[in-house]
Task: inverse folding
């Protein structure tokens, strides 16, 4: 049992809540082909993770279309990290079903890992390696040959205007540059889906927006983007968002529809309205 | 005097060897004061009570790595009694270096600063005993429980949990059900609440909070700021930093900081009123396309995404822009003149820098 699991186990609530899966009518419009092998996007049906008596993720059901920017929101402790770890093939679910890029989260965890990219604010690049070494390393880890890496790296460095810093240590770069590089490295092997865990924490507002330009860019190329954030204005940049409360998906829709439904002017207000329902103490 | 300077230099040297968490713990360490120092402290306290500036910073600078990185560049500001002053800026702006100089953990290269009238270089002992500091990185003892951490910090500062319980009551009741749990096993929001309790337990008159809300969800962030608003009615000055621009509104005054420089200092309202650019919120059916088209429009000084619409500094007429956007095939176009937010002010300061 790792540290996180131990932590969650200790949070066993006294009575176990019964969750309901929510159906989302607009999900009927998801184009055909989702869930097919090798096709981007992901789907989860009643996906559940229990640690002992504690249900960290409680029967969540949703689909994400290929190329969609999907915001995965929730308060600290709502179960986002556990859900994300299951979808990345890092944690075996207790029950339910889910496919990521067409691969089963129970049986094909290794295939999932090859077909996704992952970036978090806490860990993404090796600080004591150069920009070039990081790209080569991550490209290699994802199975690209050096002959494939070289031309892609050149065009990437050009696009980011990083050509001058290719032989600089990552630790010497400003945070905003590191984050752009980390994202580009996470999608360097052209995965079906990229998971971003609070990618923009702490960067300045201008760099934050440049970062989102990269996200839009990836989405237009067909890469599905699954992103968590505590910046509610960024939630507005997503095509659709889900909001988790106490292990369940409490809301799922476009930002616009959610605001209309909750009679709110901003996603911030929607978040307060829904997250306040939480009974679980972190 | 010499020996104190010598001691703090030594401490600084040693802190490069220590991991930074241990270095931050050192702030909690207080050597017993000599009788003479105690008297001095008492004198200054009564003097200071009449002063309003609890923190005073003048032309402070700090560089690292043999002067190759200028982290803090000629920074000056004051924080008054009963005031929450916010340092608003991104990671790497120099916020933490300022905190570490004011809490006597590192020495400035040049400039001066006083906290409660005490010099940050000469009077480090006095400062350490009278301020509360919550570092950006969680620095409590992970293998002590909530209760043990609180008792530990209370004892170090020569007080007890009971004596100042009223100060932490509102915050403590929220984590009390878990008081036997080890700090290392707490969630992010609970860790922050415990850290705040520990920073408050000795009734500090100045409170330093380095990014107390980073990584915390919007609901817990709001709660934490509400607690700070309540706290400041006590005889206390609060210096807080945050990368979230919307939290600026919770401060009495703010300093926008970037690249080691404070770009501007004002009240949030003052800052917003000073903004003199023609700012509009523009929305259309396809926001991604809208943003791209706006980039090409000649009479725009700046445009950027802002929540579900675009913010535009428009030099020309809005009717012309609307016609242009329609010609480009966008639908449901709305162009509304708006008041700036702190984030707009920050973006504007960056572009002028």
Result:
């Amino acid at each position: 049992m790792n540290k996180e699991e131990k932590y969650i186990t200790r949070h066993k609530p006294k009575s176990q809540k019964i969750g309901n899966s929510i159906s989302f009518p607009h999900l009927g419009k998801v184009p055909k082909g989702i869930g097919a092998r090798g096709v981007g996007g992901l789907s989860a049906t009643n996906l559940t993770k229990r640690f002992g008596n504690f249900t960290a993720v409680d029967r969540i059901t949703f689909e994400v279309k290929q190329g969609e920017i999907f915001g995965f929101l929730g308060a600290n402790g709502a179960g986002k990290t556990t859900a994300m770890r299951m979808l990345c093939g890092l944690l075996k679910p207790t029950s339910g079903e889910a496919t990521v890029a067409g691969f089963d989260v129970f049986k094909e965890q290794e295939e999932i890992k090859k077909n996704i990219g992952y970036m978090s604010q806490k860990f993404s690049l090796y600080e004591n390696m150069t920009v070039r070494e990081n790209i080569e390393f991550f490209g290699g880890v994802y199975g690209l040959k050096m002959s494939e890496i070289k031309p892609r790296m050149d065009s990437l460095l050009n696009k980011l205007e990083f050509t001058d810093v290719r032989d600089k240590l990552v630790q010497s770069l400003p945070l905003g540059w590191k984050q752009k590089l980390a994202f580009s490295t996470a999608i360097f092997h052209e995965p079906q889906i990229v998971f971003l865990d609070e990618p923009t924490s702490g960067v300045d507002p201008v760099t934050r927006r440049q970062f989102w330009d990269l996200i839009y860019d990836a989405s237009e190329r067909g890469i599905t983007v699954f992103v968590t954030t505590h910046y509610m204005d960024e939630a507005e940049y997503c095509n659709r968002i889900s909001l988790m409360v106490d292990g369940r998906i409490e809301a799922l829709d476009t930002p616009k529809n959610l605001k209309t439904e909750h009679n709110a002017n901003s996603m911030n207000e929607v978040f307060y309205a829904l997250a306040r329902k939480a009974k679980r103490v972190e | 005097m010499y020996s104190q300077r010598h001691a703090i230099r030594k401490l600084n040297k040693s802190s490069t060897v220590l991991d930074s968490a241990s270095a931050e713990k050192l702030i909690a360490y207080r050597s017993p004061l000599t009788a003479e120092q105690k008297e001095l402290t008492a004198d200054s306290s009564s003097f200071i009570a009449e002063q309003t500036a609890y923190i005073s910073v003048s032309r402070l600078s700090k560089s690292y790595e043999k002067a190759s990185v200028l982290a803090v560049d000629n920074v000056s500001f004051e924080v008054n009694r009963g005031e929450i002053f916010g340092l608003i800026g991104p990671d790497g702006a120099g916020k933490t270096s300022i905190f570490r100089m004011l809490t006597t953990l590192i020495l400035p290269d040049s400039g001066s600063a006083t906290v409660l009238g005490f010099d940050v270089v000469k009077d480090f002992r006095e400062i350490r005993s009278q301020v509360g500091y919550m570092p950006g990185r969680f620095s409590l003892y992970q293998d002590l429980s909530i209760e043990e951490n609180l008792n530990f910090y209370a004892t170090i500062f020569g007080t007890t949990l009971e004596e100042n319980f009223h100060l932490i009551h509102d915050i403590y009741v929220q984590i009390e059900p878990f008081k036997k749990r080890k700090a290392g096993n707490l969630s992010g929001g609970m860790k922050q609440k415990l850290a705040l309790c520990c920073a408050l337990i000795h009734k500090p008159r100045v409170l330093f909070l380095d990014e107390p809300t980073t990584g915390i969800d919007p609901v817990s962030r709001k709660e934490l700021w509400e607690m700070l608003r309540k706290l400041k009615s006590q005889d206390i000055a609060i210096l807080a930093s945050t990368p979230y621009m919307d939290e600026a509104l919770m401060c009495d005054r703010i300093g926008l900081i970037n690249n080691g420089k404070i770009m501007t200092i004002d009240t949030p309202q003052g800052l917003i009123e000073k903004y003199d650019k023609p700012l509009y919120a523009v929305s259309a059916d396809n926001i991604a396309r809208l943003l791209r088209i706006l980039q090409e429009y000649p009479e725009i000084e700046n445009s950027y995404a802002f929540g579900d619409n675009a913010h535009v500094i428009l030099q020309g007429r809005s009717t012309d822009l609307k016609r242009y956007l329609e010609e480009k095939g966008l639908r449901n176009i709305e162009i509304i003149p708006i008041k700036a937010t702190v984030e707009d002010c920050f973006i504007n300061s960056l572009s002028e820098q």
Remarks:
- The radius of gyration of chain A is 19 Å.
